[in-house]
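README: folding subset

This subset contains proteins for which both the sequence and a predicted structure token string are available. Records are stored as plain text. Below is the entry for Tc1-like transposase DDE domain-containing protein (139 residues), shown exactly as it appears on disk.
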Amino acid sequence: MLMNKYRTKISLSPSTVAVNWTRFSLRLSTKKDFEFPEMKGYFIVMDNAPIHIPQVIDPVIISRGYTPVYLPLYSPELNPIEQFWAIVKGKIKCNKLTDLESLTTHIIEASEAVPVEYLRAFIQHSVNQFDNCLNKVAI
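--- output ---
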């Protein structure tokens, strides 16, 4: 049994990874509830990871004043980091490593070479696709 400071009881099997995720999210959201009360009513967006069990997580999210939204299976259009990594991977594949270089160095250099305007565009693209997701329109 898990209970947050608002006395919301949550029954979970102690063997599930969801217990740890739920505890973490409760601690985080409790802190954020007090620091950023204007965030109430916002969406909590999650992928379909096995630890995101709607029957367990949704009541917690809703009780805190947020709306849970689950991304469709494989939805890179809704995740700006996927678009970022596609560019980084493309830059890394174009350059062979020498004996003196490391993959880490290449990742850092490729990441730093992505212009900020691209990052903003990735985010805007995901925002533009989000309504399609909510309305269950194929992307």
